[in-house]
Specification:
The structure is a homodimer of 520-residue chains. Chain A has 520 residues and is α/β, with parallel strands linked by helices. The first copy, chain A, contains 13 helices and 29 strands.
């Protein structure tokens, strides 16, 4: 899958640039709010154009790949749109990853320029020491509210830059890494068309109010956050940007800044409720909050019931990077009647449950398959993985679920071995690979353990080479340099044997039963 | 342009059937209301399937062309969706046309089946006398609220019918006749994609509320009415169907049936205001009416001001059949600030004003050009007319307008010679051709005359052959068998010469000046 192919494939739809249209149609309408900073659409478009100019001076052009290592901020929003104006491709980096993981992604995506925010500048500098050929700059939000690159691009390098007036729905907007059962992260190609169709599908399901304001506390480097930036420009609505999740700050924005929709994962919603409860027991949110879009894995039923009791309009959704976030969403009208369901596929999406190569009957569990214009065309430079995941346009998600008699989706389990911890996806194979790189480890198996706060946390089981010895501390210190902190196993158990099937495949689901026999 | 070409062209998007999705997502939600009749989406889908079954038994199949001569009714809505299930093509016939005009369209569209409602059954029967090979049936809404064909299709003719699960956006949904400067009506190909993109563009501009209810008093055989049927299924919202326009009945629906959006032309809105005024001077509409979409030609400013004074949310739009209704629409926020403007192009649409082959400057008048996925791929069996109208994807509308400094469209004049009378398009060339078919007439010219009620009415100028004589009455009686009543000239003037340019082209704009010299 080559993103450098001509960006105007036959049959593609070209649409007038979304942000530019907003700047023309609703120039004074609030586009971005973050604390005291407020940008209208005219201002956001201007910031994006200015930044695009600076990026062009650094040599960014159509097809360039620009990695962004940054927390949520208005500058992130401006940068996403600046790259669209240049027809360059965004590679959003997860700030929680280890430098080893980040370096791997920079390499795999053949990134041309690494941008970071001031908070990540030190890490970016360290990443550059072993990649001296990689250009870099710091993305700064100045006290006057303008977005600038540091160092400023050289004056001599004057590239003429003309914003692209049209967006080709077939063009790649971002490359977003997600791991899989193999443990090796893969770059999911995210096209403008996926964003467009997802935004439209979401609007058809949730409605679209001209005064909507979508609160973004999910990181923009995840698909659930990035799509908020795109929806804002497609719909012409405001984003309320939170640099990080803070339950009190989020509640305060909801109450006083006109937030109508918020995307959250269960652990966030739980903390928002706790903060709300500590202020005013039994209270809910003001009526203008019309949708709490709850994604990131199955939600605990007590949480859903607590929200229902307070009249909080929770709408559960099932999404994944390959489907550009939401694939199925419960409609607000069904929120109570179908509590616990992820609803029905978005209007442009087809969804099937398959078991043993046939469509499952209602109530019968099987793997969730998706098809439609919100689904990725494939993985960057991974033709085999693309062929395996996408057959006849149908994406094999690896997730398990069933449809009830009325066709409502219930997700039973994310990809058989996926661990979801506080909304972050953790792939056991990645942790296992890191454990196996320790000289004393012969075999490793990782699975999730229920956790009241995070939903799940990873735990590890290792078998050592005969005659070798090591400690939990030594293994954790080995992992710390290789893995993001949230991926570190909460416990490491030393065992004499791991459960495997007859062909030697690790049976991760049987790992918990080892706890009875664990050696420490 | 061949509508029989494969319906799954490369690069086309396939979407799950819209009505079927509504029947699954919102089965109990009100889909159609008309007086006492109320159909939920589940019921509408069932009616459409039943009717499709009957139509299949009559031999209708994918690609069949089915003409429908009927007033607005729930049966019309069911029939439109039934044809989608069969992948057959709708040819909506204007009930106001003469039988000569209708016969011509049946011929030109190579219609396979003529459906009519009971009120049009006599006319349909007369149309069939000279076309004995054409199949026909009457579309009936039974007292129990079911839709049936009369006569019932033969029991023996059992065609297996499977509703198509997906809609191909490239497939032709309807062939809708519109005349042009040539006077010969042309069949505009209306694809599902045009409907989809128009509906989405409209929703992005006007917002989409899950409890929206769109009142349809514009005839379904016009694009402004037909698109309401499609939007209802794309959005999952209700239609309130009015068989014909009656100001009191429309006002009553607005007040008591939860109407949130209504599409009207100026003469309708004027009468609604008059009816409202007679009941309660100075009153407006309840707040749930959030949009009065005003199309069908430039609106008189006093009407707009009267609505503004009453807080009636009028949104002006500029549309045409070739653009699947709305091409530019004023956003509600600008309704007062830009009174008289048709607003800005819908998000998926590009709009340019061109004068002398270049883009006009702000404020400079020129011809309106449109491009985008809401624009027709062309005219049925008219490759030359298609090439002339569509160059590089840009539709030359023939309409004149300008953009102000902020890019808002002001339509000065519809196609130089188009007459818009009570929202109906009247093409002078058509009336001229009918006049010229009278043996005494040597030359004929038709233009519009301002009219306080209808906006415009047609008037005619004729030069007789030397030595011939006739009367206004004789000419009108000649026209009556050939033209719809609303196209009959309000006055016919006998003149010695018609204004023509050096190449002999009729200068219709100069016709009014002849009134000073008219012979009667």
């Amino acid at each position: 899958m080559d993103t450098d192919s001509p960006q105007t494939a036959a049959g593609s739809v070209l649409l007038p640039d979304w942000l530019q249209r907003c700047a023309e149609n609703r120039p004074q309408h609030l586009a971005v709010q973050s604390g005291a900073l407020r940008w209208s659409f005219a201002e956001l478009a201007q910031q994006a154009t200015n930044l695009a100019q600076q990026l062009a001076a650094l040599g960014v052009r159509s097809g360039s790949r620009v990695a962004l290592l940054a927390a949520n901020s208005p500058a992130y929003v401006a940068c996403v749109h600046a790259l669209t104006r240049l027809r360059a491709i965004l590679v959003p980096l997860n700030t929680r990853l280890s430098e080893t993981e980040l370096g791997w992604q920079l390499q795999d995506a053949r990134v041309n320029l690494l941008l970071s925010d001031p908070g990540q500048a030190d890490r970016a500098r360290r990443l550059l020491t072993v990649r001296p050929q990689l250009a870099s700059a710091i993305l700064q939000l100045r006290p006057d509210g303008s977005v600038e690159l540091d160092p400023s691009p050289p004056q001599t390098h004057t590239t003429t830059f003309t914003p692209a007036p049209l967006i080709d729905l077939n063009a790649v907007q971002a490359i977003m890494y997600t791991s899989g059962t193999t443990g090796q992260p893969k770059g999911v190609l995210i096209t403008y068309g996926m964003h467009w169709w997802n935004a439209i599908g979401s609007a058809l399901n949730l409605g679209l109010h001209l005064d909507d304001c979508w609160l973004a506390c999910l990181p923009f480097f995840h698909i659930g956050g990035l799509t908020i930036i795109m929806r804002s420009a497609i719909y012409g609505i405001s984003i309320n940007v939170h640099e990080k999740f803070d339950a009190g700050a989020v509640n305060s924005s909801i109450f006083s800044e006109g937030v109508t929709i918020i995307s959250v994962v269960a652990v966030m919603l739980q903390r928002m409720l706790e903060a709300l409860e500590s202020e005013q027991p039994g209270a809910g949110y003001p009526a203008h909050l019309r949708c709490v879009l709850l994604g990131g894995g199955p939600a605990p039923r007590p949480l859903l019931e607590a929200c229902a009791a307070r009249g909080i309009p929770v709408v559960q959704t099932y999404g994944l990077t390959e489907a550009c976030s939401q694939a199925a969403t419960l409609s607000p009208a069904d929120a109570l009647r179908k509590l616990g369901s992820a609803g029905r596929p978005l209007p442009p999406v087809q969804l099937e449950i398959r078991q043993d190569g046939r469509r499952a009957a209602p109530g019968e569990a099987g793997m969730i398959y998706l098809k439609g214009p919100t689904i990725t065309p494939g993985y960057l430079d991974r033709p085999a993985a693309t062929r395996e995941a996408l057959q006849d346009g149908w994406l094999a998600t690896g997730d398990i679920g069933y449809l009830d008699e009325e066709g409502y989706l219930y997700v039973l389990d994310r990809r058989s071995d996926l661990i979801i911890s506080g909304g972050e996806n953790i792939y056991p194979a990645e942790i296992e690979a890191a454990l196996l790189s320790h000289p004393a480890v012969a075999e490793a198996g990782v699975c999730g353990q229920p956790d009241p706060r995070w939903g799940q946390v990873p735990i590890a089981f290792v078998r050592l080479h005969p005659g070798q010895s090591t400690s939990t501390e030594s293994l954790l210190s080995h992992l710390q340099t290789r893995l993001a902190r949230y991926k570190l196993p909460r416990a490491i158990y030393f065992v004499g044997e791991l459960p495997r099937n007859s062909s030697g495949k690790l049976l991760r689901r049987q790992l918990p039963s080892l706890l009875d026999h664990a050696l420490n």
